[in-house]
TrEMBL record:
Localization per Swiss-Prot or TrEMBL: Peroxisome
Chief place where the protein resides: other
Species this protein is from: Brassicogethes aeneus
Matching Pfam families: AMP-binding, AMP-binding_C
Name of the molecule in the record: Uncharacterized protein
Parts of the chain that traverse the membrane: none
Amino acid sequence: MARVIKGPRGKHTNVDYGNLGKYMHDAAQKHANNIFQIDADLDLKETYAQAHLRARRLALSLREHGLQKDDIITICSRNNLNNVIPLIAGLFLGAKIASIDPTLSLIDCKHCINLVKPKFIFVENTYVELIENSIDWVGCAPKIVVIGKFARHLNFEDLTKEYKDEATVEPVVFSSKETAFIFFSSGTTGLPKGICCSHDALLKTAMNILDSDFLRSDVNFHLTTLYWISAIICLMRTYIKGGQRVFSSNPTPVGVLKLFDKYKVTSTLFPPLFSYGLLEVPNLEKYNLESLYSVTFGGTPMTTEQITRMRDTFKHVKFQVAYGMTETSGCITHFDFTRDKDIYLKKEMSSGKAAVDVEIKIVDIETRKLLPPNQNGEILVKPASIPNGYHKNSEMSHNFDKEGYLKTGDVGYYDEDECVYIVDRIKEMFKYQSWHIVPNSIEQVLMEHPAIEEAVVFGIPHGADGDVPTACIILKNNQVVSVEELHKFVNERVADRQRLRGGIKFVDSISKTPSGKFQRRRIREMYKKL
C-alpha cells in the first residue's frame, strides 16, 4: 500500500540553541583542555582553548579591517590547522561563510565568487593564483588573507597575533534562524547555486545524528573540505561532544590507514571511490583499526560487490551508504545500527530509513501519484527545516510540491521495511526508444569487470531512437581489454535497450565535482570531441 515514510520525532525540534558562534564559544569553554584538531601530516595538535584564542584574535583583526555582521567570508583551502579559524571567527562576528573547494575549475570558482561577492577571502598559499584570476574576472575587491608564506596580500599569522583585550571579546547574539553558511550546489548539470542554511538547521542536524547510533564523534575523520556540508556537520558533531577532528591535506589510502591506527579514529565519511584504493593497500592486517566503529559512504552510488568486500575485509566495522542533500541541511536517510541491527546487513544497497524529523514519499515521475513499495519514482522529502532560499534568489517554492515536500530530482523506491534505495538522478536518466535508461544500473555492471577503474554512462542523441547509451571508461593500471570484450561483457548482463550502442571510449580522466559526482554534461561534450 502506498504510504508516506516518517522518521522518528526528534527531541531538539522545538528547542532554540542560539546561533553557532555563541554555541561554539560556549562549547569551547566547556571542553577547553580537550584536543580539538589534529593535523595528521605534521602530527600537530591543538586544544579547543588554543583554537578559540586564535579565532578571537582573528575576529578582532577582521573587525578592525571592516568586517560587519552579515558580511561574507570565503575560505579556499585544504584541511589544515588554520582553515577552520576564520570560520569560527566569522561565525563569532555574525558573518556568513561561503567556502570554495580548491579543486574547483577557474570557471566555477569565478562563478561562486561572483555569486556571493565576499568581503574577505582566506586562501591557502598554493591557490592564491586561482583566487586572483577569479577576482580579476569578477571585478569585486575582497581583501585576500593568505594562509602560509606569500609575498602579496594580508598574512593570516599577522591577523592572529596577541590583542590587549582579546579575553573580553564576546560573540554577537542574533537569531538562530538567520543564514550561517552558503553552500554551493554540486553543479552536475549547470552552474552552482548558493544554498543558504541556518544556524539552527545545521546544529540540530548534528544533534539528531548524535542521538542515533550512526556516526560517533570521539575522533572524526573526513576527506571533504569546508566547501561541503558534510564537513560542517562533522565539525558541529565534534563541538557537541568535545571530540577531535583529524585531517590530512593530501589523503592517500595508505596515509588514511596509518592515521586511523595512530589517532584511533572512531567514525569517518568517504566517497565510495576511495574504498577501492583502501582495499588495494598491501598488508592491511598490519594496521590496527579496532577503534573504528563506522564508515559511512555518500555522494555517489556504491556497488553491492564493493560494500560486501569492505565488510568482509574490515569485519568489525559497520558500513552503510547514507543519503542526504544540502537543501535538507544534511541527512535524509541512514541506518541506526542499534534500531536496525537485524536488517542493515541484509540490505547493503539501501540507504537506510528516514532520519529524525524527516518525511519521505515516492511519487510517479509523470502522474505524481503516491507509489507503493518497490516501485521507482521521484523521492520527495519534507525535512526538519528548509534552507533560507538561494543566495540572491530566495525563491525556492518551485522546488516543493503543494504539501511542502522537496522535489529531490532523485529516483528511488522503498521496500516493505521502509528502507529507501537510490536509483539515479532524473536529469541523468534518458530515453531510448521510449524506454527510461538509468545510467547507474549500467555503470554498476561495468564496475564488475576486473579491468575497470571507473565508468560513466550517458546518452548521445541518435535520431528517432532518442538517446543511445554510451560509456567512457578508465582502466586500472597495467590492465588491457578491448572494446569488443567490454561490449560482450555488458551485453550478457543487461537488457537489449541498455546495450552501449553509442560506443565505449577509453579515457585518462573523467570530469567530476569535488565530491566525486560525474559531470555528465561536460563528459558528453568531451565525448563528442574524441
